[in-house]
Batch of 2 targets.
Target 1
Amino acid sequence: MVKINGEELNVAGKTIAEYLATTNYDPKRIAVERNGDIVFKSQYGETLLQDGDSVEVVSFVGGG
Amino acid sequence: MVKLIPTKEEWYAALSERHGEKIQNIFESATVAICGLGGLGSNIAFALARAGIGKLILIDFDSVDITNLHRQQYKANQIGISKTKALKDNLSEIAPYVVIETHSVRITKNNAEVLLEKADIICEAFDDAECKAMLVNLVLERMPEKYLVAASGMAGFGSANTIQTQRISKRFYLCGDGTSDVQSEGSLVASRVMLCAAHQAHTVLRILTEQFET
């Protein structure tokens, strides 16, 4: 299981890009941290989610 | 008649009396960059200047517009002036000894590292969601030694109590309610934007005094 924004999800083995494709996140409006480190945008397609990973997807909305 | 303002020494003494000399020395030696000088950035700048932060790096490509005045720290007679100049002038009136560096440019992938090089802490204070994400990714990818305080979600008339500060990772903080988008809420009001700006400015002061969120 992979913890994503506090929720345990059965997505181990998928890449970040594959996981994101199943969600409504706009890739241009997010930052992804995995186990406390930023996942480089260029690495979404290569970074495999593993059992026990803790992931934060930060999604930005407009206004400031 | 010229009205004299207090000397730098008197100013420092007054701040030290309130914050304690140890903390004031930390504030005075800090450099904070503010990216975007709108509702968030102009209010963050006011709070940090009043606290006696030594140096502020103010970055915005835009000019003051009539539509800014309902929530941003500018004056009617500053419409049309660059935000960097207008804010520097306004800050100089309330905190004359803060060193202010201004850059009237759009922050891009090409110039960000040079613009932000000297900052200890970077405040993301843009209004556009894609620009926010661009800067946050760029800072976290290329400047991992910096602290980053970003904001998302402060539009509309939602409860003040939903604006929060979250520590996403060791050096990355996010303020706001996370969801209220100006596109769907349709408006931004000074009171709620200032809440979020206050969260960001206060997070800067807490980072500097090593009081980290858990």
Target 2
Amino acid sequence: MIIYTNEGNPLGLQLLMLAKFAKRPVQVQLVNLNDVKYKDLLALPTLELDSGLRLFSPAAIAKYLLVDEGQLRDEWLEWSATLLAPALAHHMAVGHKADANALPVLNALVKKLDDSLKSSPFLAGDKLSAADIAVWSLLAPDGTLKGAQNVDSLRDWYGRIKALPEVQQVLAEQPLKDLTFNALQQSNRYGGLHHVPLKRLSLADAGKLLVDTTPTVADTVTDEEISAAKAAFTYTAPKEIKEQKTVLPKAGERNVLITSALPYVNNVPHLGNIIGCVLSADIYARYSRSAGYNTLLICGTDEYGTATENKALAENLTPREICDKYFELHNAIYRWFGIGFDYFGRTTTQEQTDIVQEAFKDVLKSGYIITESVEQLLCQKCDRFLADRFVEGTCPHLGCGYEDARGDQCDKCGKLVNATELIRPRCKVCNSAPVLRSSDQLFIDLPKAEPQLKEWVDKSEGGWTHNAKVITRAWLKEGLKPRCITRDLKWGIPVPHEGFEKKVFYVWFDAPFGYVSMTKRYTKEYQQWWQPAKGTDVELFQFMAKDNVPFHSVVWPSVLLAINKGHTLVSHIMATEYLNYEDGKFSKSRGIGVFGNDAQETGIPADVWRFYLASARPEGQDSSFSWNDLAARNNSELLNNLGNFVNRALVFCEKNFNSTVPEVATTQDELVLLALINRELKGYINSLEKAKLRDGIRHLLAISRHGNGYMQTQQPWVLLKGSDDQKKRASTIIALCVNIACLLANLLFPYMPTTARTLFGQLNAKQTPLNAEKPLATLLLPAGHKIGKPAPLFAKLEQSFIDELKGKYGGAQETKAAAQSQPSAADLEQAVQAQADKVRQLKASTKDKAVWQPEVTKLLELKKQLEGAKKTAPNPAPAPAPTSSNGVQSVQDLEKAIQEQGDKVRRLKGSTKDKAVWQPEVNILLDLKKKLEAAQKAAKAGPAAAVPAPSAAPSADAGQVKALEDKIAQQAEKVRTLKASGDASVWKPEVDALLALKNQLTALTGIPAAGSQGKSKKKK
Amino acid sequence: MCDVATVQKIANCLGVNPGKVQLNEEQVVTRTSGQKKSVAGFATILESLASESKSETAQNSKTSREVEAQVYQWIEFSVLYVAPGSKDKYVSKQLLADFNKLFASKSYLVGHFITLADLAVYYAINDLVKSLSPVEKEAYLNLSRWFDHLQNRPDVHQGEPLLNFTTIYLHGWATGTHI
């Protein structure tokens, strides 16, 4: 016989056991129902008999394989297949299929089993039967009975069956841990057993028997993790983080050289620039230092070039003065953001000139420079060739003739212009007419360097971000062309070559060498970093936005390869995508977006900006800056999660233990917590090693969430009032929490250095190095350690404040407009109705989707607006959660609140994958559900409140009810007439409308509306 | 159609006194017959009915152990999938498609004769088929053929109005669009 089943299917176990007890040899074949080969299989597992007959019902198979064992057995078999299995499937479901009602139902079923087994050793009497096999095999996977209480008879029975040799043999082939009811979803084409409604049991509440296994991560902790956590959690006096005066690479150690793309000097950096390069580089560098690597972070402003010359002209300053002015601006912004450069330099230094000129000579010597002639406009009066932007004239395009067209583009017709084609060109500076001259320029012969470059890229791109690889590959695929490296400008590094004395290097040739020259400003030993001796490995991490990738992955490496003097080449190109501003672009000219200096003016601490920008870092895809998101993350993650945990831990320690950290005596709970923390710690290290800063934050916050959860379940504030033993427990809990706070301070340091320092101050502790090799939590603060004075770390960002900022920095226009023109919910409802009618008519009259689709789209849009309007409209119903006389919220109100909250959560989950956003809402939902359970129990206890009678719903307004009932009657009439016409697509929407009305009525009165539509009721 | 009504219908069909049929505290259908013997569970009740019946359908349902097993699995299928699944848009579509495919190559669910399997699925799928438009019925032609064949048996329809499948046959002769 063959069993066809899918991976993890718990029912497969039942078939294996049946075959074993029937002594029939069987082989298992794992199949996928989507596989065309198995299209004839209806449900898994399916047993194929030797005759070829296929059976898919385990109960039918049991009856077939084993002899008749009586009616009682058959009843149990059916019970297990139609009641127990669906209930388990509901209970084990996760995500949107999770069903909170499954547990009470399952408890009742388990109670029935236990009761039966009290009076007889096996389900169908004195002997083991197929019924026992069926039920046992359903209870065994997913550990349903784990932790169950008051089911001793059932447990005894379970143990007896498990001990049977046949069962042991089957379990040896099919380990229980591989089975789960979730696998049923792939066992048929109906999505598992979720369509089977849970039977609403009329028998009294069976009480709590099974453990509430809303799957918790704690269950997944393995013994290995526990013992590793236990072994690691010891105290060793921390090594001081060594701070050398000058960091140099060392042989045999990890040496990390980090650069951030050089910002162009006269651009004010906006938030996108900041997170794209400097901030990312800083966070990574801080991590790298605390992991104990020799780390050097270099950056500076890129100052040469046309743009500076232009700006100088506009502001009537010399280029040097412009650079000085803007350099200070950059420096101040980065300092405010807490960017800890080892050296922040500039490209207009003597070192830069020396290094670039020497590099040029080397490239020339190795034969990678070619000379070509290029036609350019020369202003004889100014004695220089004019860059495109320095020429103006009449637009050459037919029919335009705009007189002030620029050398690159005409502002009137918008077409691109070639400077040499301008009619009557004039120099922007002196207004005299330039002449066309051909001028010799130097080119670097990239095609010649291409083979070496390709070889190097193949070898190195493993450590690059995805976009860096893609962009580089695209360049290489297109084939490299010679690139001009000289310009006829004054503001630049002179070209040390005969005949080129009046020319300077084009910025992209000189700027990358800025990394080297700035290092030289930092230390005379700069060559140890850039041309390390044999045996010393330097890893070069370069942070940039994706537009800078080609210069770092193709052009500069080609130059360095051409020089061939053993320069450090980039091993990790860390390129980000773009950060948008509230789903638009940052624009300085339109005043949209937040620029470096604005951030400072908002009064929001730099650390909060750093945290937010890192958690919204455009890793992998573009992301958006949003004020609401900033506030949400500050309030929910920093304030409520991290800040709350740390502060509670420290205040407990201060108030109850005289600011002295007590002894930690770990129990299983502590070890599970540590194991979970170690997982996140490992994730944090792995993420940061790859400079995945966004993921790093996620892991960090998960640790504090675990901490919060631990404190919440252990309730040390209760234990503190208890017996001596309980007080001892409390001290362990607090000591552990304070230690976790200390761990968090260390992990937080790269992201929020100031906050971390404050926290270290409150802990009276120093930063401890991170152990990237062995990321396990250790005891950082031993018993007896005195902590400092705790104080809140974060402040709430109020919505009003955020709205103010939103208005100030743009992005508010559209919200304002929306508010003004927002139609009322009633208007919208009417519009929806009208549009729906139109759609129905169209759909009935034609099958052409192209015709009705636009109308459908309109309808959906209207419906969305309506939903929005309903949400924002003041709720006409009385206060959302009135309390009943005994102070407990009534069941009905809670159910309604749960419904609303559930919708909200679904919407949120639908709109974003970011757990940080929806988790708080989910928590609220869970809390509500808990309250409901309590309320339901209270309702059952008090007979008066047992039935939600109409009179028990004081919120129902008689007039409202009447109006609704009339509406229902009308709608029902409409449905009946329509149904007579027969076409389901016509009357279906109306039926839905009717049902919606009825639901409204039910919500209002608490009694379901009687009606002609209840098919099942009518047929009874 | 609820379990109680279906059990009564099938009992009529088999010419057996249904006895007292009701739901127990677990919402499971039970049958208490003349000898005060109680049976719980839809499939188990159907088996007990068949054992008391001399009708052709009942005899067909127990010609061999293989047939019995197949009949049982379809009864269980009707309880576990057809009845609850008919109320789910997605599941009902899949059910219709699956049965339509099944009936492409056979006239009855098990073997070559009417069995309890057909009856159980017929009553479970009744409401769903009733809700189909003529075009949909045409799309599930094989299922419709099986259904129409069964509903024309007096012991099956038991006086209920028959569903209209006629346009399907018409369509076989003259291709055209339905309303």
